[in-house]
Amino acid sequence: MPTDLFSTYGDLLDRTARKVKQYAQRRFNAENYDITVDQWLILRNLNQNNDLNQSQLAEITEKDHPTLTRIIDLLCKKGLTERRIHPADRRSFTIHLTELGKHHVAEWSPKMAEIRMKAWENLTEEDYKSLKRILDTIYSNLDLKVEDELRIKNLHPIADS
Q1: Rounded to two decimals, what is the model's pTM?
Q2: Over 90: is that where the pLDDT of 157 sits?
């Protein structure tokens, strides 16, 4: 495939992701939800996988540790999450939803589903399946760690012509 046909796919993906996030944030604000899209991502993942340590949560959400720490700090201040000392390792802690956090996740989840569905107006289930397949493939293509790519490159250097 000629590179000019897909040279702007990254811009399109980035623009679309930003638009979805901006739309969701506007809806959160309109509903007077005192939360950001990134904070919702953490709450939703904790609701699905309670009792996670910060490294596990960082991996699931693909947030770097400093960013995740700031988000967790804010959610703790809002009373939606709490840190608990890990019972087997007193040097580490796990992140949990508080009762208030669980209540808000249950209350906000239907609105979040509605927000997600807005993006799919005028699209079919087949459209969704095709997009998911394509995005999964792109993700898999890029999932190789940079260190692994460098190691492979050093093992198999490209010969100069």
Answers
A1: 0.78
A2: no
Verify that 111 and 130 share a domain, yes or no.
no
Kindly state whether residue 1 falls inside one of the protein's structural domains. no
- In this structure, the answer to whether residues 78 and 133 fall within a common structural domain is no
Residue 12's H or E segment, with its range, is helix 9-30
Measured CA to CA, the distance from residue 62 to residue 43 in angstroms comes to 14
74 and 151 inside one domain? no
Contact 40, 108 (CB under 8 A): yes
pLDDT tens string 80-101: 999 998 777 778 899 999 999 9
- Residue 120 per-residue DSSP state: T
Q: What angle, 0 to 180 degrees and rounded to 10, lies between the N-to-C axes of helices 65-77 and 54-61?
A: 110
Together in a domain, 98 and 141: no
pLDDT tier at 5 (50, 70, 90 boundaries)? low
Beta bridge partners of 97: 81
pLDDT of residue 161: 45
Parallel/antiparallel/unpaired status of strands 81-85 and 52-53: unpaired
Q: Per the structure, how many domains does the chain have?
A: 2
**The tokens of 72 are what?**
């967790």
